[in-house]
Amino acid sequence: MDIERDLFQERHIGPSAEDQAAMLATLGYESLDAFIDAVVPADIRLREPLRIPAAKSEQEALEELRLLAAQNQVFRSYLGMGYHDCVTPTVIQRNVLDNPGWYTAYTPYQAEIAQGRLEALLNFQTMVSDLTGLEIANASLLDEGPLNNELAWPGRASFDETCRL
Questions:
Q1: Residue 70 confidence (pLDDT)
Q2: Can you spell out the DSSP letters for 108-158?
Q3: Where are the domains of the chain?
């Protein structure tokens, strides 16, 4: 690969100088500066150049990112370690949390976790509809925190304060 010729800006698909001139002519301006002067109010224009470093090639930027990433320290991840100070009934642990059918795709060609999350939301909506007798139910499309709040809410309404989900 020829580093001198492999520039990001040359691979970027943008309007050519001829295209820019044609667009400006259609709008009735002779240059991009004249167009900007006409449409951007003078009191918000920055008249001096920005104080930014010179541009780098893609390879230089990637090398700088590699050096920066090499400074990272790897610590123990606590993601997915469960919820603090919770008592989860065994039936929920075994049939929901330990059941990969809730968080994996059920079709072999779609191996992404999103399919399992959508299925979990559908199962939750179906459960709420069955429990309440309502024709429709809603489920959060946000992350696991709000979804778990919604899952725990029916339990709070039916148990006394000594029981925790």
A1: 95
A2: TT---HHHHHHHHHHHHHHHHHHHH--S------S-HHHHHHHHHHHHHHH
A3: 8-70, 90-158
